[in-house]
TrEMBL record:
GO terms for molecular function: hydrolase activity. Residues 122-368 form the Beta-lactamase-related domain. Gene3D superfamilies: DD-peptidase/beta-lactamase superfamily. This is Class C beta-lactamase-related serine hydrolase. PANTHER family: BETA-LACTAMASE-RELATED, BETA-LACTAMASE-RELATED DOMAIN-CONTAINING PROTEIN. InterPro entries: Beta-lactam-related (IPR001466), Beta-lactam/transpept-like (IPR012338), Diverse_Enzym_Activities (IPR050789).
Amino acid sequence: MNTDHRQWINMMQKFLQRVLRKSHHHQNHSFIFTSSALILTTLFGCGPSSKDLAALNYIPLAGDDWEVSSPEAEGLDADTVAELYYDSAKLNSIYSLLIVKNSYLVAEKYFNDGSIYLKSNLQSVGKSFTSALVGIAFEQGCLPSLDQPFLAYFPEYVNLIKDPRKQEITIRHLLQMRSGYPWEESDRDLWEVFVAGDFLGLMVHVPLINDPGTEFHYSNLSSHYLGVIVDRACGTDLRTFAEEQLFTPLGAELGEWYTTASDDRYPMGTGTMHMTARDAAKFGLLYLNDGIFDGKQVISSEWVHDSLQNYTQNPSVGWPKEGRNVNRTGYGYQWWAIQSGEHHYHAALGHGGQVIAVLDKFNMVIVVTGDPFFLEHNAKAWKSEKQLINLVADFIASLPSE
């Protein structure tokens, strides 16, 4: 709750007090008293008090991997930030909430099963990491062109594919989620086959639902194929490539990274990277700073710029709108563009409500992690995801316009 909001509430309190005083001389005293009490309860009974907010502790924990500051010192309203953490504490599935402003860690708190040391499964947030690895491979020359047919890296499957349109799918199409492959969770039978884990074989058997490059369809297979392409093009294990080219330069540590059920050769480019919330924030800061981390150009600024373009406007994702402040306005190279209130930003999002939000306008990164609900695609999991995404979106919408 910002200062202007509190001033407005104080004014309303004084106004209602005057109404109550005047009601002593009014024949409908009982009615006015009851109505005023209801208004007061609505305005003041549901939100945190100043005392509640002051009692919250979200001071960054000790550690040598981040320079720390405070929200106030970096230009954020203290009450607005405190209210965000107050709301977070009500959620059963949240693990962490971190705010980075002006390259300083200004707020940090862990909840439920979370801790500063926990390397949790960030689910589809990993897609944005896979995109970064594609960019590094492209800059290093492993990948000569994004407009190559993706099947150039899967020669063992070329003669098995009957649909000639699949020969036209490019690496760029995979990055933009415009390959023509469907969202696996849109069909129960397809989802069961997907979970079985023969991701490479599915490029043959899963039918396209539109011509490559013509429509957006969120596709886990597309992201996984990107990871395999980097592995094969650069002639190195994908995990090793990720650690050497991305995580080590960030001073970050990659935990578990699941492989597919039927082939443990390739980590899942579609997600499932495990890392701490602090390390996830470093990745967000990397994109906020045009690919530079600690003075080193880890990813080219051109790749960051291209990754955050909207190649699809207002992408339809096949599920109900998540909240009034969650408006998915575009999709880049495995990054979402979102509008919350008056503010536009980019985000890496994962099942269960994993979020890395990059707000260029405010020079800020917000990270939320929570229960990943791995392979649990049910009402409880979707509810949790919606809660955590809205937590971030509502906070961003509450930020001032200037």
